[in-house]
Design brief:
The protein is of the alpha/beta class. It has 2 domains: 341 residues, Rossmann fold; 130 residues, Glycogen Phosphorylase B (Rossmann fold). It is 45% helix and 17% strand. It contains 16 helices and 15 strands. The strands form 3 sheets. Strands 5-4-1-6-7-8-11-10-9 form a 9-stranded mixed sheet, with helices on both faces. Strands 14-13-12-15 form a 4-stranded parallel sheet, sandwiched between helices. Strand 2 and strand 3 form a beta hairpin. Helix 8 packs across helix 10. 33% of the residues are buried. It comes from Solanum commersonii (Commerson's wild potato). Keywords: Glycosyltransferase, Transferase. GO terms for molecular function: alpha,alpha-trehalose-phosphate synthase (UDP-forming) activity; trehalose-phosphatase activity. This is alpha,alpha-trehalose-phosphate synthase (UDP-forming). Pfam families: Glyco_transf_20.
């Protein structure tokens, strides 16, 4: 397995590759050796300039990613970058968009575009808002990206229809380097609950599409797909409004598969990357999706397409070759001379956040309290989103089977299952919640005593400090979902 440092380097390299990528084959592209030599000279020039003049920006305001440092590569990043160049994975990140005409290096901005902003907004008055940092795997992963001045564009999670509310929320989010996209309630229902979570999410996890009569399904799919494209266009409008020359636009996840195409229609020179945070299914599964070709071509408009694993990247290339009839290459997908690079970039978390939290007095106190409560018992921990693909019912039933076959362990082991609620307004998820509660209640009634129960099942959002307590306490981790 890759270390946390490796995964953070992978995330940073994804951005760097996007910023330096060419979107077509060019006979003037230098050889690998020439690119390495040019990068070394630029690096020397940058060091000299930093020593004599200093190019650090005076803006020290904090943001959701870090401290807004100047664009610079650490020694580890440079070594990783040079290694990638030697392997021919990318053009030098310092040769396209980083250097101004006067030869000086300019700071490069990163525009992160995701369905949701990294903060949750709660309205307190006509023109006042309360903002809290959201929990989620995407937010946690991007906390480790700090080489860029980053701005986040996304939906604020609330329906704001009045002009005063939109203006005040925009101003409040600007302090967090966030830019809102305002989607109305009906569009969110069709785009997010409909096409994203009812069609794309299940299919990408190898679940069949909803079974309805053919006519109703066609109408439903068509209206939801139209809403999906409309929402993606609204994201593109906001990105284009705030885009500056040499910005890198980093689009995230299955919610925004149409966004690369929309952005390139605005500006063909815009550097666009797209990263998927779910599996990408095999071509046999993907071909069952209505509008599959349209979605694939929209993603291929990006300069760089990233996935968690090599298998997901391979499935994407296979879908493009088998469904669209395009040519797959070792570097990506080629369409009439236009090359979209496809690669795997394992993602990681900021482990230092967890380590620092362990030193807090309140955390230490509660760790001791929990250790005393579960003394003499093995603790099994599961942390999952309450989602159909996470297998929570199957896990709990397997634990019941273990207790049946091993009666000596009934008073010696406890399962702590944390289920983080998600998509609570979707009927299928509501049914799943009821099903899990029924199974837990039956098992606790069967094997529990007056003083102890075998399963502690909590449906709640789990804060970072509480997670650290459980990580220290547990003996076995039987599932883990990155939520921080």
């Amino acid at each position: 397995m890759e270390s946390i440092e490796d995964t953070h380097n992978s995330q940073n390299n994804l951005i760097l590759q996007t910023s330096g990528i060419k979107n077509s084959y060019d006979s003037t592209v230098p050889s690998r050796l020439e690119r390495l030599l040019r990068e070394r000279e630029l690096r020397k020039s940058s060091k000299s300039q930093n020593a004599n003049e200093g190019i650090r920006d005076g803006n020290k305001d904090s943001n959701v990613f870090g401290n807004g440092n100047e664009l610079c590569l650490s020694d580890g990043d440079r070594r990783a970058r040079e290694g990638e160049l030697i392997e021919g994975l990318a053009v030098s990140s310092l040769t396209n968009g980083f250097e101004r005409q006067d030869g000086r290096l300019q700071r490069q901005r990163l525009l992160v575009v995701a369905n949701r902003l990294p903060v949750s907004a709660v309205r307190k008055g006509e023109d006042s808002w309360n903002l809290e940092v959201s929990v989620g795997g995407l937010v946690s992963a991007l906390l480790g990206v700090n080489e860029f001045e980053a701005n986040w564009i996304g939906w604020a999670g609330v329906n704001v229809t009045d002009e005063i509310g939109q203006r005040s929320l925009t101003e409040a989010l600007a302090e967090k380097r966030c830019i809102p996209v305002f989607l109305d309630q009906e569009l969110v229902h069709q785009y997010y609950n409909g096409y994203c979570n009812n069609i794309l999410w299940p299919l990408f996890h190898y679940l069949p599409l909803p079974q309805e009569d053919r006519l109703a399904t066609t109408r439903s799919f068509q209206s939801q797909f139209a809403a999906y494209k409309e929402a993606n266009q609204m994201f593109a409008d906001v990105v284009n409004e705030h885009y500056q020359e040499c910005d890198v636009v980093w689009c995230h996840d299955y919610h925004l598969m149409f966004l690369p195409k929309c952005l390139k229609e605005y500006n063909s020179e815009m550097k666009v990357g797209w990263f998927l945070h779910t599996p990408f299914p095999s071509s046999e599964i993907h071909r069952t999706l209505p509008s599959r070709s349209e979605l694939l071509r929209a993603v291929l408009a990006a300069d760089l397409v990233g996935f968690h694993t090599y298998d997901y990247a391979r499935h994407f290339v296979s879908a493009c070759t088998r469904i669209l009839g395009l040519e797959g290459t070792p570097e990506g997908v080629e369409d009439q001379g236009q090359l979209t690079r496809v690669a795997a970039f394992p993602i990681g978390i900021d482990s230092d956040r967890f380590i620092r939290a362990l030193e807090l007095p309140a955390v230490k106190y509660h760790i001791k309290e929990l250790q005393e409560r579960f003394a003499g018992r093995k603790v099994m921990l599961g942390v999952d989103r309450l989602d159909m693909i996470k297998g929570i019912p199957q896990k709990i039933l397997a634990f019941e089977k273990f207790l049946e076959e091993n009666p000596d362990w009934r008073d010696k082991v406890v399962l702590l299952q944390i289920a983080v609620p998600t998509r609570t307004d979707v009927p299928e998820y509501q049914k799943l919640t009821c099903q899990v509660h029924e199974i837990v209640g039956r098992i606790n009634g069967r094997f529990g005593t007056l003083t102890a129960v075998p399963i502690h099942h909590l449906v709640c959002l789990l804060l970072l400090n509480n997670m650290n307590k459980l990580l220290i306490l547990m003996d076995i981790c039987i599932s883990w979902c990155s939520l921080f």
